[in-house]
Design goal:
The protein is of the alpha/beta class. It is built from nine helices and six strands; from the N terminus they run H-H-H-E-H-E-H-E-E-H-E-H-E-H-H. The protein has one domain: Zn-dependent exopeptidases (Aminopeptidase). Helix 6 links the parallel strand 4 and strand 5. Helix 2 runs antiparallel to helix 3 and helix 4 packs across helix 9. Bound molecules: zinc ion (ZN).
Amino acid sequence: MKLKNKLLTYLFAGAVIAGGIVGCELIEAGAGKGMEAVETSADAVLDRPVIVLDAGHGGADGGCVSVNGIPEKNINLSIMLTSRDMLDLLGYDVRCTRETDVSIHDKGIEGLAKQKKSDMDNRLAVINESGAVLAVSIHQNQFTDPKYSGAQMFFKADSPESSALADVLRERFRIWLQPDNERETKPVGDELFLIHNAKCPAVMAECGFLSNPEEAAKLETPSYQQEVAMVIADSINCYVSRKRQGGETAAENSI
Ligand SMILES: [Zn+2]
């Protein structure tokens, strides 16, 4: 079975069994148990937790540029929109900082620097005024040496929950897409405005390197963008489910 189909089957197994949010462990435990799984998982149906997805950059701010000349902002948006749809179907109340190719700065502000500041302030307001249980900001990486590749998670320093969310994202990227990825999650401070100032657990997901020709080519295809998006949706669902169950949020190697 193609990876995308596997991911879809896995994600929707939860939606079908529980009619909403269900822990990944419950899906796993329920596999092959028939109706027993339905009864067990029904307890896991919960209110719709608010989560915020941020597609990095937008409008005049293209972010970094791939080796093929594709701006990061487009890839971020495409991934975010699919994650949004998946999480909506899984029972989350998804808020997005942007859903089109725009900067969300206040009207009337002139100059790129001031627009960028306003844009970031408004993105932060979406996160902090939504009552979100978590926020994930989606970006792509770039480095001078083209040999580097692979996803990496940056979490809000001194926030154990942010660290746990980053661990789950790292785990799911490794399980589904990049088994050889050894990149550690990294804490960040005020150099990452949005993550640092978020009131909820927050992670910036650098999904891959646009400076690596092989990875850039993949990240530019809608099919791989959808796979990455589903991994992000799966990660968020696992993190929330484990937390709601009161169990470990730490990575466990199971799908
Ligand atoms: Zn970026």
